[in-house]
């Protein structure tokens, strides 16, 4: 896995130390304890899980064991659609999900991962900071709690066959996540015949050549070993793979006030560390992919064709998946 190759193990000790900064603690010796069941697609031992496990340790230390999280990594609880369904029926309490999972609760959130829109971390960070109250209210209306943000790197296209312009994708078999809205629309606009699969099905499909293109960050491609089955990748990214942690609101509200406070305080440190870690690790993974000999594809004179396809996707989804007013608000918030 990527994290053994890069040597990320020592980060656990740094993370635990960082979470232990002065903050809210509890010494209440109540008998009742709480365990939050949280699912994720992130592989065990990955950067994501190292941060989450360090957070969990600190959470238990600060609550004298009264509150802890039980993580189900690596898609052991299914795909993100399964996470959301299980949260709704009480089989899970929360999930660490991408914007695909978030959009199953609040469809309009897909605005944050439109292609060619928020393609830098700086823009995405400004939007999430300025519009946090609005986004949180949207989730609460659906009975969920948006606890914090997380990233998964810069979204690129990886392919087993050469390509450059969008029209080249018509002869390829790109993967599209079953429940993902943006790339379903993008491939429809381009005229490519996308193959719909769940994340756990992608690697076998690359092996059997059922698919020959995936959209992914370098970090995810290495963590899930997809990079071993491709030869080309875009030098540019169409968006940032954004996501975060969501939880059923009633589960969060069941926690005593002191435990909720500790959870949110330590959680904010976790999300900040998570994003910093993932962004650095995505760059390291990109270098690993380059060293493997995967060729970088630049748009060159095909850039106007890509820009036109991205714009068509935004136009098609505006008014259908999210209101024009939300797109305008995000555009304004993204500005420096």
Task: Describe, in plain words, how this protein is organized in 3D.
The chain has 336 residues and is α/β, with parallel strands linked by helices. It has one domain: 3-Layer(aba) Sandwich (D-Maltodextrin-Binding Protein, domain 2). Helix content is 46%, strand content 18%. It is built from 14 helices and ten strands. The strands form two sheets. Strands 1, 2, 3, 4, 7, 8, 9 and 10 form an eight-stranded mixed sheet that branches. A two-stranded parallel ribbon has the order 5-6. Strand 5, helix 8 and strand 6 form a beta-alpha-beta unit.
Any descriptors?
336 residues; two-stranded parallel ribbon; alpha/beta; 10 strands; D-Maltodextrin-Binding Protein, domain 2
Can you lay out the helices and strands and say which pair or pack?
Elements: H1 2-6, H2 11-19, E1 34-40, H3 47-62, E2 67-72, H4 80-88, E3 94-98, H5 99-103, H6 121-130, H7 132-141, E4 144-159, E5 175-177, H8 182-190, E6 195-197, H9 202-208, E7 213-216, H10 218-223, E8 232-234, E9 239-248, H11 249-254, H12 257-291, E10 295-297, H13 303-317, H14 324-334
Parallel strand pairs: 1-2, 1-3, 5-6, 8-10
Antiparallel strand pairs: 3-9, 4-7, 4-8, 4-9
């Amino acid at each position: 896995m990527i994290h053994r190759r890069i040597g990320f193990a020592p980060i656990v000790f740094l993370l635990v130390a960082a979470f232990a900064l002065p903050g809210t603690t509890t010494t209440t010796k109540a008998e009742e304890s709480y365990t939050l069941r949280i699912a994720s697609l992130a592989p065990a031992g990955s950067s994501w899980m190292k941060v989450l496990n360090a957070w969990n340790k600190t959470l238990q230390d600060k609550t004298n064991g009264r509150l802890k999280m039980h993580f189900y990594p690596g898609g052991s609880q299914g795909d993100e659609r399964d996470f959301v369904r299980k949260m709704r029926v009480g089989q899970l309490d929360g999930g660490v999900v991408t914007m695909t999972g978030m959009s199953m609760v609040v469809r309009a959130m897909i605005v944050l991962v439109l292609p060619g829109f928020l393609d830098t971390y700086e823009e995405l960070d400004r939007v999430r900071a300025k519009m946090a109250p609005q986004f949180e209210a949207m989730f609460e209306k659906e009975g969920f709690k948006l606890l914090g943000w997380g990233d998964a790197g810069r979204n690129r296209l990886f392919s087993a066959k050469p390509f450059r312009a969008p029209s080249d994708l018509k002869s390829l078999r790109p993967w599209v996540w079953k429940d993902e809205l943006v790339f379903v629309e993008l491939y429809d606009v381009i005229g490519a015949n996308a193959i719909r699969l769940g994340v756990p099905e992608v690697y076998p499909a690359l092996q059997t050549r059922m698919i020959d293109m995936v959209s992914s960050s370098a970090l995810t491609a290495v963590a899930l070993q997809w990079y071993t089955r491709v030869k080309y990748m875009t030098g540019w990214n169409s968006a940032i793979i954004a996501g975060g942690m969501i939880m059923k609101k009633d589960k969060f509200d069941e926690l005593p006030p002191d435990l909720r406070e500790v959870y949110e305080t330590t959680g904010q440190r976790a999300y900040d560390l998570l994003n910093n870690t993932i962004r650095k690790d995505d760059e390291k993974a990109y270098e690993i992919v380059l060293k493997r000999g995967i060729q970088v594809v630049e748009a060159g004179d095909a850039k106007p064709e890509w820009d036109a396809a991205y714009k068509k996707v935004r136009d098609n989804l505006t008014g259908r998946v999210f209101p024009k007013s939300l797109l305008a608000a995000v555009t304004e918030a993204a500005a420096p």
